[in-house]
Amino acid sequence: MIGSAASAFDAAAVALEGGARDVHLYARRETLASLPVIRIRGYPGAYDNYGALPDAVRWQQAIRFRGAGSTPPPDAISRAVAFPNFHLHLGAPWQAVRLEGGRPVAVTPQGEFGFDFAIAGTGYAVDLGAQTELRDFADEILLWRDRFTPRDQDRDETLAAYPYLGSGHEYLEREPGRAPFLKNIHVFNPAAFVSFGLPVGDVPSFKRDIPAVVARISRDLFLSDLAAHEARINGPIADDFAAELYAPAVWRPPEHVAAE
User: Fold this and answer.
1) How confident is the model at residue 123 (pLDDT cuts 50, 70, 90)?
2) Does residue 44 surpass a pLDDT of 60?
3) Is 259's pLDDT higher than 60?
4) What is the mean pLDDT of residues 65-80?
5) Which CATH number among 3.40.50.200, 3.50.50.60, 3.40.50.1000, 3.40.50.300 corresponds to the domain 1-33+70-123?
6) Do 35 and 71 touch, CB atoms closer than 8 A?
7) CA–CA gap between residue 117 and residue 8 (Å, rounded)
8) Integer distance in angstroms from the first to the last C-alpha of the chain?
9) Cβ atoms of 213 and 183 closer than 8 Å
10) In which element (H, E) is residue 138 found?
11) Confidence class for position 260, pLDDT limits 50, 70, 90
């Protein structure tokens, strides 16, 4: 198992519970990530309004998360370490891998290890040009590196390749007017992380980001048919009731009696 966040530990536990003879999990870090950076900003003000934060603040938070790492849940760790045939390798990135007799052999700082199966729980990489459906116009999409220049000590080329998204998770144009169709593509996946501060697509993002995406799609569809809607809301309207309904109750001044 390559990786040391939630998905890696979950997959390791499933393999162990399924009868695997041994499971080895390899982490690049010397210790497992245990600092829940995202959790500290989970209160409503930060959670609901994260996308409105200044670029410098959002970038700093992304850098902080990258430094701290993605934390596996304690129960996921406990689930795996309960098995005596689970082996955790810390400070052991895979430096190379080769096949011997159809079996992968990993080269690590701790030596070489051969396996029947290798499972990657290594997280995400953002490369819009690598996506078949985006490849033809990936160069038109605004990225964080196009919009924000951090301090030298805060530069991160991985984060710089993330798309810089609009408030409805939509792609924005690198050059306004060249690809207006981009606003109709909404990103509900981890590529929205730098813009919205969460692993979008995971459960914690649902309450905030699904309504935001739906609201923007609804608004855009409405405005694209504005002429029809304007005609509709200015169209003829039937009265709910006639004046006869309240006529008996209308007050009128009494008639004056002429003096004799």
Assistant:
1) confident
2) yes
3) no
4) 95
5) 3.50.50.60
6) yes
7) 14
8) 113
9) no
10) none
11) low
d(CA 172, CA 195): 12
Contact 102, 34 (CB under 8 A): no
- Look at residue 196 in the predicted model and tell me its pLDDT: 97
Round to whole Å and give the CA distance between 4 and 121.
7
User: Does the pLDDT at position 258 exceed 70?
Assistant: no
Distance between CA atoms of residues 42 and 132, nearest Å:
34
Residue 77 and residue 80: Cα distance in Å, rounded? 5
The 10s digit of each residue's pLDDT in 127-170 is 999 999 999 999 999 999 999 999 999 999 999 999 999 999 99
Domain with CATH 3.50.50.60 in the chain: 1-33+70-123
Q: Cβ of 25: how many Cβ atoms within 10 Å?
A: 25
pLDDT of 254 reads: 87
Strands (E), the chain: 23-26, 86-89, 96-100, 103-108, 111-114
Kindly calculate the radius of gyration of the chain based on its CA atoms and give it in whole angstroms. Answer: 29
Cβ pair 28, 93 in contact under 8 A:
yes
Give one DSSP letter per residue of 151-181, joined into a string. Answer: -GGG--HHHHTSB-B-TTSBB-BSSTTS-GG
**Measuring CA to CA, which residue among 130, 189, 125 is closest to residue 158?**
125
Joined together, the tokens standing for residue 144 give: 């964080």
- Region 228-242: mean pLDDT is 96
257 has pLDDT over 80 = no
Cβ neighbours of 59 (radius 10 Å): 23
Q: Are 88 and 72 in contact (CB under 8 A)?
A: no
